[in-house]
Design a protein that fits this description.
With 344 residues, the protein is α/β, with parallel strands linked by helices. It contains twelve helices and 18 strands. The protein has helices at 42-47, 93-96, 127-130, 143-147, 152-162, 178-189, 202-211, 221-231, 247-256, 277-282, 294-306, 325-333, and strands spanning 2-8, 11-16, 28-36, 55-56, 61-68, 80-83, 86-87, 107-108, 121-124, 132-133, 170-174, 194-198, 215-217, 237-242, 257-265, 286-289, 318-320, 340-343. Strands 3, 5, 6, 9, 10, 17 and 18 form a seven-stranded mixed beta sheet that branches. The structure holds zinc ion.
Length: 344
């Protein structure tokens, strides 16, 4: 089968790899129908040291179950399923509290040991805890939005929850990538009255406004902080969704949160320390967040997608085949595309 393998910075290849197959009785074999490239795939795309053994890529996918192991109970052959970006057993202490990204027996797709989502098929470990069956066919018109439940929509929702978005309050979103845009959807969905998007790309700003952003701040650094303060009566935002992970974006997020407010961070931190320790301390600002347990959110967000109340699939502005994946990485890295969907 064909799959995406990264060998180093700017070195993504589509190769023939051993066919995915069942190994454990708790596995499912999924034939991928839709997958995508993530903003977080761009971190290794820009920094991975050259390796002779590449890393299998992709952690967002929908597909048809081709076969299941003897212990699988909740999904079956023929089901169309969405996979969260982490796999999990669904039964341990952390899964039971809805924190599947800390599953005691779970893990992450791809790398050198497991299949990744950017390939024709995937062995899914712990299928019962990991996969969610979808009540539609594989070519349903809502497929792009359903695919976002594997990561970006759930991650935006997680940022909003950790930032304590409340009805009638002010939310600010740092980062205009797919997660930030989904964060706007999530903030609106949770009732924020004023939603300030910090971003600079015209196409992304237009989408943010469509999703519910009421204000756009395109300045950077201190100028951005000052502008958000102006827009909020000098006080700052109750809730800040940090959807980038750079030191600079975290500095901005901390700088625009009001006293007693919260920053929900879902961008993978690229620096070892959190900036602004003293100002956030003196202002009693909560800093929370981490990898989103999107598995916990699929059931909550699914009805809104199926009934058309939210349309996160609009973040996909380019579609490719498996052979076009390397150019898809380039396009996202060059900010030519917001997010690339792969059709199989
Ligand atoms: Zn678990």
């Amino acid at each position: 089968m064909k799959a995406t393998v990264m060998y180093g910075a700017h070195d993504v290849r589509v190769e023939t790899v051993p066919d995915a197959r069942l190994i454990e009785p708790t596995d499912a074999l999924v034939r991928v129908t839709r997958a995508c490239i993530c903003g977080s795939d761009l971190w290794p795309y820009n920094s991975m040291p050259s390796a002779t053994t590449g890393n299998r890529m992709g952690h967002e996918f929908i597909g048809l179950i081709e076969d299941v192991g003897s212990a699988v109970r909740t999904v079956k052959k023929g089901d169309l399923v969405v996979a969260p970006f982490a796999w999990s057993d669904g039964t341990c202490e952390f899964c039971q509290q809805g924190l599947q990204t800390s599953c005691l027996h779970g893990g992450w797709w791809g790398g050198t040991e497991l299949d990744g989502g950017q390939g024709e098929a995937v062995r899914v470990p712990l299928a019962d805890g990991t996969l969610v069956a979808l009540p539609v066919g594989p070519d349903h018109a809502l497929m792009p939005s359903l695919l976002t439940l594997s990561d970006v929509m759930g991650t935006g929702h997680h940022a909003a929850l950790r930032a304590q978005v409340r009805p009638g309050k002010v939310a600010a979103v740092v980062g205009d990538g797919a997660v930030g845009l989904c964060g706007v959807i999530a903030a609106r969905r949770l009732g924020a009255e004023q939603i300030i998007m910090l971003g600079r790309h015209a196409d992304r700003i237009a989408l943010a406004r469509r999703f519910g952003a009421t204000d756009v701040v395109s300045e950077r650094g201190d100028a951005a902080i000052e502008r958000v303060r102006e827009l909020t009566g000098g006080l700052g935002a109750h809730s800040v969704l940090e959807c980038v992970g750079h030191g600079e974006s975290m500095r901005t997020a901390a700088g625009i949160a009001r006293a007693g407010g919260a920053v929900g961070r879902v961008g993978v931190p690229q620096e070892a320390t959190i900036p602004n320790a003293q100002p956030t301390f003196y202002a009693n600002i909560t800093i929370a967040g981490g990898p989103a347990p999107v598995r916990a959110y699929v059931h909550e967000l699914l009805p809104d997608v199926l009934e058309g109340r939210i349309e996160p699939g609009l973040v996909f502005d380019r579609v490719t085949t498996i052979d076009g994946v390397p150019d898809g990485y380039r396009a996202m890295n060059d900010r030519e595309a917001i997010k690339v969907m792969i059709e199989f």
